[in-house]
Amino acid sequence: MLIVIAHNIRSLHNVGSIFRTSEGAGVSKVYLTGYTGFPPRREIAKVALGSENRIPWEYRRNISYVIKKLKLEGYQIVVCEQDSRSIDFKNLVPNKKIALLMGNEVRGVSKSLRDQADQLIHIPMLGSRKSFNVSVAFGIVAYDIGKKICSLY
What we know:
Elements: E1 2-7, H1 12-25, E2 27-33, H2 42-48, H3 51-54, E3 57-60, H4 63-72, E4 76-80, E5 87-88, E6 98-102, H5 111-114, E7 119-122, H6 134-151
Parallel strand pairs: 1-2, 1-6, 2-3, 4-6, 4-7, 5-7
Helix pairs in contact: 1-2, 1-6
């Protein structure tokens, strides 16, 4: 089971993209935390194309509550962020229950949140840019993790 935590995502278009991609990647729920916008919003709906109505979601300002709750439910907390401790996302060996945390478009995921993760992953970059847009990065890793989780059943 794959759950997504979208934390402090500033662009509503990115939120919409995360919803739409979630539907194709087999995500069972989206948590929107911090100052991430949430439906109903025209900008989200424009990109999500109805996925925001089909994927269960919940808004919680306090991400610590969400992380604590999911850990108690047996979720492996995986943060997508460049860090000296992160591994290539392709090398992730997932549990059957993953909560994938994606962070702010500019600042990423804070050190305090990275420290709460069970695993840190990154996407190796081939060009001169240091990172992908959050919704693109989410699509890359969520689809891969979703496929891996499906193979566990």
